[in-house]
Amino acid sequence: MKKKFSSHKMYILFLIIFILYASSILIKQQLKLNSYEKQKEFYQAELNDNKDKNKELLTMKENVNSPEYIEEIARDKLDMYLPNERVYIDMSK
């Protein structure tokens, strides 16, 4: 009778250990999945930002040879003006 009781205790102990081990594995896997989900969201946002930048660059590429763009860059960046153009500078600022 005592031997049967001892094997029953061993079975319950083994079952408890197995449940604890399986639970720890599941918790670790869930934490790793959450980490991957956060990384996915970060990279998705970065991808969307890069797509927006790409659209802006493609638009700029299309307009880079237009006379309006060239004139804008010459005026704003290089301080160049047309030969007969008068330039007024506001000194109050």
- Low-confidence segments, given as residue ranges, are none
Q: What is the typical, i.e. mean, pLDDT?
A: 88
Give the number of helices.
Answer: 2
Structural class: mainly alpha
| Overall number of strands | 0
The global form is rod-shaped
Strand content: under 5%
Q: Helix proportion of residues, in percent?
A: over 70%
Q: What is the H-and-E element order?
A: HH
Radius of gyration: 35 Å
Distance between the termini: 102 Å
- Main sheet record: none
Describe this entry's structure for a reader.
By secondary structure, this protein is an all-alpha fold. The chain is 77% helix and 0% strand. It is built from two helices and no strands. The protein has helices at residues 2-63, 67-76. The radius of gyration is 35 Å and the shape is rod-shaped. The termini are far apart.
List the helices and strands and how they pair.
Layout (H helix, E strand, L loop, with lengths): L1 H62 L3 H10 L17
Concise structural overview:
With 93 residues, the chain is mainly α. 77% of the residues lie in helices and 0% in strands.
List descriptors.
single chain; 93 residues; mainly alpha; 2 helices
